[in-house]
Amino acid sequence: MPGMGLSVDGTEYFWYHHNNADTLDKLDPHEMNLCTAAMAVMAYVVADMEQRLPR
């Protein structure tokens, strides 16, 4: 089954991962917007393709 995901800089990932400080205020709003835009563009392109992705 086709899938998509982001490969992002994870250097700070485990600073807060799965502890009490792991809250939304740690997100960088600009980076979150970029990730959201990238996923939206990819979804739009795939949905608009004439042929389906191979499975």
Task: Characterize the structure shown.
This protein is mainly alpha-helical and 55 residues long. The chain is built from two helices and no strands. It starts with 12 loop residues before the first helix and ends in an 8-residue tail after the last helix.
Topology:
Blueprint: H1 13-16, H2 29-47
Brief overview:
The chain is mainly alpha-helical and 55 residues long.
Structural class: mainly alpha
Share of residues in strands: under 5%
- In one word, what is the shape? elongated
Portion of residues within helices: 40-55%
**Low-pLDDT windows of residues:** none
Query: Which value, in Å, is the CA radius of gyration?
Result: 15 Å
Q: How many beta-strand runs?
A: 0
- Multimeric status of the protein: single chain
Query: How can the largest sheet be summarized?
Result: none
Order of helices and strands: HH
Task: Note the main attributes of this structure.
55 residues, mainly alpha, 2 helices, 0% strand, elongated
